[in-house]
Amino acid sequence: MRNEEDISIPTLSVLGKKPRIADTFLLALIYICAFFAVALIAGIILYVAYRGIGVVNWTFLTTAPSFKNGTVGIAGNIINTLLVVALTLLIATPVGVGSAIYLNEYAKEGRFTRIVEFTTETLSGIPSIIYGLFGFMLFGSVWGYCILTGSLTLTIMVLPLITRNTQEALKTVPSSYRTGALGMGATKWYMIRTVLLPSAMPGIVTGVILAIGRIVGESAALLFTGGSDNSLLKSISGLPGKLLSSGGTLTIALYLYMSKAEYDTAFGIALVLIVIVLLINFATKALTAKFDVTRRK
């Protein structure tokens, strides 16, 4: 009997073939592109941190601007930003996810479905300043410049993003999940609620994260709808009044400080924006991992 050591791999096998020069070149090109992407985002974060870290302190984060006290603060802008994000997602997420479920699970393939999908994709490419003009004419005529007007405008803007990402996430769920659940006697809604949505949760959350990034970074639409007031919210009981009053977000404050050539303060606000987006992303990822059934043991 021959020993295993005597068995050699044929020189013509896949493992024995030498890598081609083209494959090596393309692999190196992929690594270079990946390194460039990481280096670019790291460079932006480091430069913003370098320019803005000297401005960011406890007073800067917890007070409102005061000419009398000579302080510069963004606490009101932070509260306004969080309110806009929360209110926009509270409206856009159920509507976007529900629309995707209808298009993917209930609507029959046909002209109507194709028109809705084409319209959704077209809405994703409309410039945000047009959304601002539309929101000002539609919602601003009722409530004026306020956080509610800005949130409703941003809801229309991010709705296609959430809908399309949810729809694509639902398409990635194997059809055997559907047939298996229905074959065991589950109703269609029960199957969607307990099987499809948990399985598609990573893709849905990806769409929500992209929507959060667009909401936090939006300025053009909010200039026409949300206003620029940066006063602090005095108490929770005053929240309804706050939603119906002018409220400048961090991006609006950054734009105003840049227009006044106060670059250090603008970079400080930019640093706070980056930190907020990172914290929201990490929190959302942790929440996704908790409810992702594919990772449960």
> Helix tally?
14
Q: What is the radius of gyration computed over CA atoms, rounded to a whole number of angstroms?
A: 25 Å
How far apart are the termini? 44 Å
Poorly predicted parts: none
Percent of sequence in beta strands: under 5%
Q: How confident is the prediction overall: mean pLDDT?
A: 85
Shape: globular
Number of strands: 0
SS-derived structural category: mainly alpha
What composes the largest sheet?
Answer: none
Fraction of helical residues: over 70%
H/E topology pattern: HHHHHHHHHHHHHH
Chart the SSEs and their pairings:
Layout: H1 21-52, H2 58-62, H3 75-106, H4 111-124, H5 128-138, H6 140-143, H7 147-171, H8 175-183, H9 188-199, H10 201-216, H11 220-225, H12 239-243, H13 250-259, H14 263-291
Helix pairs in contact: 1-14, 3-7, 3-10, 4-7, 5-7, 7-10, 8-9, 10-14, 13-14
Your description of this structure?
The protein is mainly α and 297 residues long. It has 14 helices and no strands. The protein starts with 20 loop residues before the first helix and ends in a 6-residue tail after the last helix.
Short description:
The chain has 297 residues and is an all-alpha fold. It is built from 14 helices and no strands. The longest helix has 32 residues, at 21-52.
Keywords:
about 70% helix, 14 helices, mainly alpha, globular, about 300 residues
